[in-house]
Amino acid sequence: MPTMPAGTLYRGKVGMWSWVLHRITGVAIFFFLLVHVLDTALVRLSPEAYNAVIGTYKTPIIGLAELGLVAAILFHALNGVRVILIDFWRKGVKYQNVMFWIVVAVALLIFIGFAPRHLAHVFG
Amino acid sequence: MATAVATKGTEFEQMGAVPTFQVTLFVRRFNPEDGQEARWEDFDVQVHGTDRVLDALHKIKWEMDGSLTFRRSCAHGVCGSDAMRINGRNRLACKTLIKDLDITQPIYVEPIKGLNVEKDLVVDMNPFYQAYRDINPFLIASDKPEKERLQSAEQHSKFEDTTKCILCAACTTSCPVFWTDGQYFGPAAIVNAHRFIFDSRDEGAELRIDILNDKEGVWRCRTTFNCTEACPRGIEVTKAIAEVKQAILRGKP
């Protein structure tokens, strides 16, 4: 008896996967903001503690995580505009598929512009 | 003369011969009485090039395993009884030609998702119908015309698309929001509300708008477009939901 998956994954198209990615990047950005608000609030309590915490961020691992953060924010922000257009622009529903690929293209373009500068900064 | 007819007959038979091929179907089985979990069962079926997935299921039920349970009624895409998940997408079994699927791979047939499975491919449709009932799917009009209520072609075109719904539940059970939140009205109920909200003869638009302007109403829609893709009648479901959202913001159709 061959082992089978519990059920097949629903094979949605661009609309479904863009929504899944929007959720994942949204949750990731939320956790970043949580940490970011906490570490920034630390400066009010003790500037020394703040400096110590920020100092620990200056490692290549955090540098790469920042790269991922920028990618997540780029997609989430641009796809957010796409979702707004689907809801409020009369032709948004018709062009949702094209708009998704525009989102990907623009996000990729900005990311390619950002990544080398950032990596040079992290590893330089 | 007789020979000519015979030759013609053979030619005709050859022309009309429908190619057959063997396909493997993985069908999701569940029997509430045997105490076992839902599981996949495979069937090798000899099918014609003109056969639909429903024909293959019939062949299994009639010739191989009579216990296979599924719904179907008209078998021609009108009644909306045989919505199921075929190769990971919601389809009507009677409108899906097997030759259009990748027959080098097994064909996966499962019940639609988000409603409780009763047996094999049969699900409990009651929550689905309840959401439909809740939007008042009937004409609400106070006037008493002597003959019919007149409407221009232009007025009709506003909701013509949503009159095509056959309540098969393919859209509602393709919705990721509905899978995790069964309280959500779902695309089908909103489509049928749309059919009356934008009908110039109807006077219940405000009532329906009020019903759908709920936490579990249209605002649950996350525009994944699964419903539009799944609809066997080609209704632009997500567009209809977007139009209802706009109507709610305006406060009128």
What is the fold-level CATH name, i.e. the topology of the largest domain in chain B?
A: Fumarate Reductase Iron-sulfur Protein, Chain B, domain 2
Largest sheet of chain A: none
Q: Please report which band the strand proportion of chain B falls in: under 5%, 5-15%, 15-25%, 25-35%, 35-45% or over 45%.
A: 5-15%
Instruction: Give the number of DSSP strands of chain A.
Output: 0
**Low-confidence parts of chain A, pLDDT < 50 over ≥5 residues?**
none
The CATH architecture category of chain A equals Up-down Bundle
In total, the number of domains of chain A comes to 1
CATH class of chain A: Mainly Alpha
Topology:
The complex is a heterodimer of chains A (124) and B (253).
Chain A: H1 14-45, H2 47-56, H3 60-88, H4 96-123
Chain B: H1 2-16, E1 20-29, E2 39-48, H2 53-64, E3 83-86, E4 89-92, E5 107-110, E6 117-119, E7 122-123, H3 126-134, H4 153-157, H5 176-180, H6 187-197, H7 205-212, H8 226-230, H9 237-250
Parallel strand pairs in B: 1-5
Antiparallel strand pairs in B: 1-2, 3-4, 3-5, 6-7
Helix pairs in contact in B: 3-6, 6-7, 6-9
Structural notes for this entry:
The complex is a heterodimer of chains A (124) and B (253). Chain A is built from four helices and no strands. In chain A, 15% of the residues are buried. By secondary structure, chain A is an all-alpha fold. Chain A has a single domain (14-123), classed as 3 helical TM bundles of succinate and fumarate reductases (Up-down Bundle), CATH 1.20.1300. Chain A is elongated. Chain A has helices at 14-45, 47-56, 60-88, 96-123. Chain B has helices at 2-16, 53-64, 126-134, 153-157, 176-180, 187-197, 205-212, 226-230, 237-250, and strands at residues 20-29, 39-48, 83-86, 89-92, 107-110, 117-119, 122-123. In chain B, strands 2-1-5-3-4 form a five-stranded mixed beta sheet, covered by helices on one side. A two-stranded antiparallel sheet of chain B has the order 6-7. The termini of chain B are far apart. At the A-B interface, helix 1 and helix 3 of A face helix 8 and helix 9 of B.
